[in-house]
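Hi team,

As requested, here is the filled-out complex form for the zinc ion run. I kept the field names the same as last time so the parser does not choke. Let me know if anything looks off before we queue the next batch.

— J.
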Amino acid sequence: MAEQVSFISILQWSEDQCREFLARKRWPDGPRCPKCGEPDPYTITRKSRTKNHVSSLYRCKACKKQFTATVGTIFEDSKIPLNKWFAAIYLMCSSKKGVSAHQIHRTLGVTYKSAWFLCHRIREAMGDNDGSLFTGVVEADETYVGGKPRGHAAHRPDQTMSERIKAGFRKKTPVFGILERGGRVRTMATQKNTRLTQKQVQQALRTNIDLERAALITDEHPYYFGINRHLPHGVIRHKSEYVRGPIHTQGIESYWAILKRGLYGTFHHVDAGYLGQYLNEFEFRFNRRKISDAERFAALMGQTNGRLLWFCQTAQPENPFA
Ligand SMILES: [Zn+2]
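And here is what came back:
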């Protein structure tokens, strides 16, 4: 039976109810030790109902470690009650343009500092790159976000770029993305104040697209020169045309519009160092746009195993999107 999960119901869940929900989403096939991966742990029930009572406490049969459903997740070691975490996740999963830390702070009554921390951990969990390859018609494009010149910085043509950056002018950060027409999007930001290179772009394309089962469509940028040695490549010359039958990049361009409306409307200024996390957030929602808010919330619960944490630091294949 489908569970009735709503923002209101989540706020009323006890700490135990939250843990039980998390355990079901995190371990659909039953609990496993987060340290050694052993299934089927002992369940420890405590007789006295103390203030710190945890009903779902497990003990690993192999390594004998005790654990709860939050161990090894983004919730570990947090003093914020789980129902507030869950409510924040629900808000971030359901609002199209994103939710600012200020909004979480006001709505849930946690300090701004806690709200900021919580939002960042949740965005980490929203990271979506499972390494699967894009197929079919794939559009690629780059855009630039952030860093509008302000005040005097905009009117000093005599300054060099490094003088302007010192004076507070922020360069826009390039973001590169690919979109499977009708399907998923995957985006990457470059390092602060660096430019995207042809090598990076082509590596990103080759490691994220199934070259045997896809066709690429881009504009005429030199980034893509020579990519047609790897897969069919359609080019739309934006200087003279916008759409030529199926040859267009309107899918990724409308994604950029959603991203920018969200980034500028909700977050005002995004530090380039955190841009990757915001990209995670928008990608997570976009790639699950066809399911309900409650389903999106449940999906995130299933991937809260912390990427930030010790046991997850397995080497990943080299991927410029990661
Ligand atoms: Zn174990």
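Two things worth flagging: The chain is about 35% helix and 15% strand. Confidence is low (pLDDT under 50) at residues 307-322.

Thanks,
J.
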